[in-house]
Write a structure and sequence with these properties.
The protein has 543 residues and is an alpha+beta fold. It has 16 helices and 13 strands. A hairpin with a 2-residue loop joins strand 5 and strand 6. The longest helix is centred in the last third of the chain and has 27 residues. The protein binds adenosine monophosphate and magnesium ion. Adenosine monophosphate binds next to loops.
Length: 543
């Protein structure tokens, strides 16, 4: 926890936005607009049940034995106007562990359903996430604070409502890393160790083991998902569906105006647009969500629910980080844009009670396809340092490049980042991107040189000065991403009580497009020892 004890006046990163107003979380007032606006569960007991007609159930977090702050995001705290904690056992840890509720908090678990791996799964809901309330930032924005791993809720089904340290480290780091990559995402304020163990069968091989437990405090304008609407629609709860839609539009899409049939249509279109932009960013940075079930799709177009996600290392559109997904590879990198469209179609179905005009919904889905295509093209052009991909031959240039990247295992992140350094005849700068010696074979080298020659000729047609081109490329091609093996190193150390790797990764990933040569080792391709090591390449859903 160096971050807490460091002399903050000497912070090399300068003042944090809102710091002047920064105050302790315990002195803040929370709002409960969600609880007031949408129908709640009449039953107050905390036992697993179906909850017809309600959008949420009131439930308090279950206290934990010994909360300790293991990580804290200054950047996220800055958004909320929160003062940094002093040390691991700062009293704020009690709040962020769910041990202490403030008087203005009205904690609840949301009810939602979802399509999991293509099938309707019925009621799911926040089985281990509990929202504390909504905090107003110094800038006047409203942020929902939600504890993940805070204990059982009416939606926990057969599970324990807890989260393990390994998956919590992954969610904490990736939420913040994605934000700094410029990808729409939910945020993470803190990671608290519970001082309790959680039993998990990590490999689903019948060998459950005790693991350290942890709680992430997640932060977003809202954690409402497609599934919150789907559950109401599937049960014919049209009044609840409308109230939830009206609330979400009024609070999160105010520019659309007061809810009405045409506004519902424009709202769906906007969800499609935002989802498209998010997907284009995922493809740009090589992010694979791993579990794109409709209960993991944010209504605000934010990346949500970091589970068995991963980053493409060797470029391979059929790669999925999720071992549960291996049989069908439904959620593989290259499938993601189509899956998002499928998920939006499920949402459209759920909204037919509000939007009877089917062509309006179809139009939204078309907007998704158009916005995804145009955003992805623009981002690809930036990755290549071209002002557009509209010239004759551009499509073939791109198709041929991805063909070459697949022919021999080539690290997507390193290849694009280093492309700015390569020349028509100069393949050398790309060498660190290759996982196998095959890449240096005569045949592959000549394919690559051939492509680089065409690319250099195409780049030469741009009016931009070379330095400008490189700057554009470096803004589109991150140097540092949260490779699974790096996250695993942070986890292994954290499990031994050492949070320094986590802190280092957080710092470096706050500036993913900068060179940071002193951290060069965090920008290397995955080492061979990590190829098949648990947590470093593939992950299960067990968390
Ligand atoms: P996920 O795969 O994490 O998106 O979760 C799918 C569903 O299972 C959601 O309803 C979660 O709340 C629930 N769930 C996942 N893990 C747990 C857990 N440890 N305890 C209770 N519910 C859980
Ligand atoms: Mg989920």
């Amino acid at each position: 926890m160096q971050q807490q004890v460091r002399d903050r006046s000497a912070d090399p990163h300068g003042p944090i936005e809102g710091r002047e107003a920064a105050v302790d979380l315990s002195t803040r007032e929370f709002d409960d607009s969600f609880v007031r606006a949408v129908p709640g569960d009449a039953e107050a007991g905390n036992f697993v049940r179906q909850v017809p007609g309600a959008s949420y159930s009131r439930v308090a977090p279950t206290p934990v034995a010994a909360p300790r702050l293991l990580a804290w995001s200054d950047a996220c705290a800055g958004l909320l106007g929160l003062a940094p904690p002093r040390n691991e056992t700062d009293p704020v840890a009690e709040i962020l562990a769910g041990n202490r509720l403030l008087p203005s908090m009205q904690p609840y678990a949301a009810r939602y359903g979802g399509h999991q791996f293509g099938n309707w799964a019925g009621q799911l809901g926040d089985g281990r996430a509990i929202t504390l309330g909504e905090l107003r930032s110094p800038q006047g924005e409203s942020w929902e604070l939600q504890l993940k791993g805070a204990g059982r809720t009416p939606y926990s089904r057969t599970a324990d409502g807890r989260a393990v340290l390994r998956s919590s480290v992954r969610e904490f780091l990736c939420s913040e890393a994605m934000h700094f990559l410029g990808v729409p995402t939910t945020r993470a304020l803190s990671l608290v160790g519970t001082g309790e163990v959680v039993i998990r069968d990590m490999f689903y091989d019948g060998d459950p083991r005790p693991e350290a437990g942890a709680i992430v405090c997640r932060v977003a304008p809202s954690f409402v998902r497609f599934g919150n609407f789907e559950i109401h629609a599937s049960r014919g709860e049209h009044d609840a569906l409308r109230r939830l839609a009206d609330y979400v539009i009024g609070k999160h899409f105010p520019a659309l105006g007061a809810p009405s049939p045409p506004v519902y249509g424009r709202w769906f279109e906007e969800i499609c647009r935002r989802t498209a932009v998010m997907l284009a960013h995922w493809m740009r940075v090589g992010f694979v969500h791993g579990v794109m079930n409709t209960d993991n799709m944010s209504i605000l177009g934010l990346t949500i629910d970091y589970g068995p996600y991963g980053w493409l290392e060797g470029y391979d559109p059929s790669w999925t980080p999720n071992t549960t997904d291996l049989p069908g590879r439904r959620y593989a990198y290259g499938q993601q844009p189509q899956v998002a469209a499928w998920n939006l179609a499920r949402l459209a179905n759920a909204l037919t009670a509000l939007i009877e005009d089917i062509p309006v919904l179809e139009h939204g889905l078309e907007v998704y396809a158009e916005v995804f295509t145009s955003s992805w093209r623009r981002m690809l052009a930036e990755k290549l340092g071209l002002s557009s991909l509209e010239r004759a031959g551009d499509d073939a240039l791109v198709t041929d490049l991805f063909g070459i990247l697949q022919q021999t295992e080539t690290d997507m992140t390193l290849f694009f980042r280093r492309l700015a350094l390569a020349g028509a005849e100069n393949v050398e700068p790309l060498r660190p991107a290759f996982y196998s010696d095959e890449a240096l074979s005569e045949a592959h080298r000549s394919r690559l040189v051939d492509w680089l020659t065409r690319y250099a000729a195409r780049a030469g047609q741009e009016a931009m000065p070379p330095a400008h081109r490189v700057a554009i490329m470096n803004r589109a091609n991150p140097k540092y991403v949260l490779r699974n093996y790096l996250a695993q190193q942070a986890i292994d150390a954290a499990n031994e009580g050492d949070t320094s790797m986590m802190e280092r990764l957080l710092r470096v990933l706050e500036r993913p497009y900068e060179e940071q040569t002193e951290h060069e080792e965090l920008a290397q391709r995955r080492p061979e020892w990590a190829r098949n090591k648990a947590g470093c390449s593939a992950l299960s859903c067990s968390s």
